[in-house]
Amino acid sequence: MKKIVVMASLLLAGFNLFAQQQQKEDAATFAKEIQQPGVQVFDVRTAGEYNSGHLANALQADYNRQDEFLERVKYLNKEKPVYVYCLGGGRSAKAVDWMRKNGFTNVVELEGGINAWKQAGLPVEGVGISKAQLSMDAYKSSIMKGWVLTDVGAAWCPPCRQMEPVLASLLAKHKNLKLVKVDGGNDTEVMKQINALKLPTFIMYKDGVEKGRITGVVSQETLEAMMK
């Protein structure tokens, strides 16, 4: 009897693993399910591909740049569903396989990638949108008076999004602190000039003089320490 129970458990575990490995969805199903609360949409194409059109609220990490992918994927919630896509399915399949092997409990792949999404007539965001780069002169002017915190980040960057409530709390507490945003997907010249190429990067200034900088996800207290 005991052997039967063990065998049944192994068969069930094997079935569950197989089911997870086969978890691909067509564009229509994928589109419906990403509307659920708590779903994380993950684009594993390049930043350039992302900027040419992406799914609403998608986070981004280039799977082919393993340092970038491994850095950003760790800020996704492993306990919440992650819906992954690329251009045609090749990179997303590899990304999904890695995620399942590294503790993500519910990962869904868009079959056929964003190509299949477009063929189904579903909407994408960011197409044809061009944004002027922040000039270095404008940036310098923005940091010259009082306490200023520069946030070099992007809405599609997982650790940047994780920092949003921390920054909101910091600004609510310190009314004299001004926040200046540098778009990590657009303001490349300013990023180069201030040597801030990792997202997110935070730089604290007092009257135009740098008082400290830090990268990655940090606490409010760590940011406040740069004001002392």
Automatic annotation (TrEMBL):
<dbReference type="Pfam" id="PF00581">
    <property type="entry name" value="Rhodanese"/>
</dbReference>
<feature type="signal peptide">
    <location>
        <begin position="1"/>
        <end position="19"/>
    </location>
</feature>
<dbReference type="Pfam" id="PF00085">
    <property type="entry name" value="Thioredoxin"/>
</dbReference>
<feature type="domain" description="Thioredoxin">
    <location>
        <begin position="110"/>
        <end position="228"/>
    </location>
</feature>
<keyword id="KW-0808">Transferase</keyword>
<dbReference type="GO" id="GO:0016740">
    <property type="term" value="F:transferase activity"/>
</dbReference>
<dbReference type="InterPro" id="IPR036249">
    <property type="entry name" value="Thioredoxin-like_sf"/>
</dbReference>
<dbReference type="InterPro" id="IPR001763">
    <property type="entry name" value="Rhodanese-like_dom"/>
</dbReference>
<dbReference type="InterPro" id="IPR013766">
    <property type="entry name" value="Thioredoxin_domain"/>
</dbReference>
<keyword id="KW-0732">Signal</keyword>
<dbReference type="InterPro" id="IPR052367">
    <property type="entry name" value="Thiosulfate_ST/Rhodanese-like"/>
</dbReference>
<protein>
    <submittedName>
        <fullName>Rhodanese-related sulfurtransferase</fullName>
    </submittedName>
</protein>
<dbReference type="InterPro" id="IPR036873">
    <property type="entry name" value="Rhodanese-like_dom_sf"/>
</dbReference>
<feature type="domain" description="Rhodanese">
    <location>
        <begin position="35"/>
        <end position="126"/>
    </location>
</feature>
